Amino acid sequence: MIGTSTVSTDIAQAAPPRGRRRRFSQLSRRDKTVLFVMVGIPAFIHIALVWVPALLTAILSFMKWDNVRPVDTAEAVGFRNYWEIFTIFDNQLFPALFNNLVLIVWLFLCSAVGILLAYLLDKNLKGTRVYQSIYYFPVVLSVAVVGFIWKSVMFNRDAGLLNILWPGDPIDFVGDQSKLFEFNLPLLDFPLGLSTNFAALLVAMAWRHIGYIMVLYLAGLKSFDPSLREAASIDGCNEWQTFRRVVFPGLKPINVVVAVITVIEALRAYDIVAALSEPRGTEVMGTLVTNSLTGEGGGYAGRGSAFGMVLFLLCIGFIIWYVINNFRERDA
């Protein structure tokens, strides 16, 4: 009896208490360390270089600071900076927002052209690799370099290729601020419209954007299941119906990426405008932020931060809206 009770006591002490389950992990301590380093370091860099400056910009947008004196001299002014950009400087804000909106619509049209080129090149036409290289060449160039190329080679008034081919008088593509069209809004005292030099800038943006979209969709089409196309053709679908009802919906992950990239690229456009020396009529939100901080008559860090927060909210608002709708469709 004594031996039996001793054994029972040892078993009871060795057994884990009820209600507590030991968690077994397939990851070793070394695996956890490597995982922490691989995830933690990029996350720290991202937060330090993206979200911390964004938070500081949001705080600075409610303050008055000349960007020269120490930060402790900054003065809290509440919503004055936002009131100024929407009232006093509305003749700068709304034309810039309009140009960004035009750029969004234009880049989506260019994306459609990129899809068309990708679909044609997917047919393995003769010389496909040559065409791919030609269309993709602008993508490897930065936006600033694209701006310099078009400014000196294409748009130059004296020796530009477009003016050489143009049969009439030379056109100042960069300096022409005349409006191609104008319209009035009830709450604004000035018209909004598309200037000639900004229309020329749209052509330069399209030269780069079309090749980028073409490569993305060409990669998606190469990995698309050909049996789905065969099934659609058996059901009697023509080429357009197959693409619209089978191929394009099947490329939904790429569609999401392209939509987000297109909107973000249009909203944060600044490099190509700066490469053209920021002529009047080509102002976008990025130029307003930069000029408020460092441009002529600059030194208004609070106002520039307010412009930056408007741009940030436009970008993050679209991304949140699109991601939420995408998850809702998945859960449905």
Structural commentary:
The protein is mainly α and about 325 residues long. It has a domain at about 90-280: MetI-like (MetI-like fold). The chain is about 65% helix and about 5% strand. The protein has 14 helices and four strands. It has helices at about 1-15, 30-60, 80-85, 90-120, 130-135, 145-155, 160-165, 195-220, 225-235, 240-250, 250-265, 270-275, 285-295, 300-330; strands at about 65, 75, 180-185, 190-195. It has a two-stranded antiparallel ribbon with strand order 1-2. Strands 3-4 form a two-stranded antiparallel ribbon. β3 (about 180-185) and β4 form a beta hairpin. α2 crosses α14 and α4 packs parallel to α8 (about 195-220). The longest helix has about 30 residues, at about 30-60. The chain is globular and about 70 Å long. The N and C termini lie far apart (about 65 Å). The mean pLDDT is about 85.
- Proportion of beta-strand residues: under 5%
Q: What is the terminal-to-terminal distance?
A: 65 Å
CATH third-level topology of one domain: MetI-like fold
* Percentage of residues in helical conformation: 55-70%
CATH domain class name of one domain: Mainly Alpha
Question: Could you state the order of secondary-structure elements as H and E?
Answer: HHEEHHHHHEEHHHHHHH
Alpha plus pi helix count:
14
Largest sheet: 2 strands, antiparallel
**What class would the helix/strand composition place it in?**
mainly alpha
Instruction: Tell me what the CATH architecture of one domain is.
Output: Orthogonal Bundle
What is the number of beta strands? Answer: 4
